[in-house]
Automatic annotation (TrEMBL):
Domain DTW: 2-194
Protein name, entry field: tRNA-uridine aminocarboxypropyltransferase
EC numbers: 2.5.1.25
Keyword S-adenosyl-L-methionine tagged: yes
Length: 196
């Protein structure tokens, strides 16, 4: 017999995360390029993030070079879009209030997947190489306890997005509530892990 699923978060009722959704009005549009293998990943944070932010879209694809929805985003935000990704050419995020009008970021792109899968999305989509790249300060401590990585300073997609938006919008308080819900999401996921 199949398990009943929530129609909103698309998770089994027993692990529904709708009570953790924290409506948050972000000023900078968020686009998440999600690797197809992440869609049904119960530990993933994109559902909580995308259901909470007022301006967010998720594009599920590995190759977006011909993806109409993604190409429309590039056209709409041309000159005001950046990729949050630690490439060699990435520059530190700065407040939008501290840059010239023609350099203000109005849309941020995140790659969602394991480091290996995110790197693959980056490598096969040359269009991403030509965008400005931004990175977060190294002193941000992640709270993502349910997925292990050897990468120093690794953050979940939700954390990276919230910290990036907070810095660019110069409003750290706005995303505190969502980050608190993320901590509860962690605890909920850990509660499903069998104890030895």
């Amino acid at each position: 017999m199949s398990r009943p699923y929530c129609n909103v978060c698309q998770r089994p009722q027993v692990s529904c995360i709708c009570h953790l959704i924290h409506p948050t009005k972000n000023d900078i549009h968020v686009v998440i390029l999600q690797h197809p293998s992440e869609v049904k990943q119960s530990k993933g944070t994109v559902t909580l993030l995308s259901q909470s932010l007022s301006s967010c879209q998720v594009i599920i694809a590995e190759d977006v070079s011909q993806h109409q929805e993604f190409l429309a985003v590039l056209a709409q935000y041309q000159g005001h879009i950046a990729l949050l990704y630690p490439s060699e050419k990435a520059e530190m995020i700065v407040k939008n209030s501290e840059v010239k009008a023609d350099e203000i970021i109005k849309c941020i792109i995140l790659l969602d997947g394991t480091w290996k899968k995110a790197f693959r999305i980056y490598m096969i989509n040359e269009v991403l190489h030509h965008l400005p790249h931004r990175i977060l300060p190294e002193n941000i401590q992640g709270q993502y306890q349910i997925r292990k990585t050897k990468k120093q300073g690794a953050l979940s997609s939700l954390e990276a997005c919230c910290y990036g938006l907070a810095l660019m919008e110069n409003n750290t308080e706005k995303y505190v509530g969502l980050l608190e819900k993320f901590k509860q999401f962690n605890q909920m996921q850990l509660s499903f892990v069998p104890k030895n």
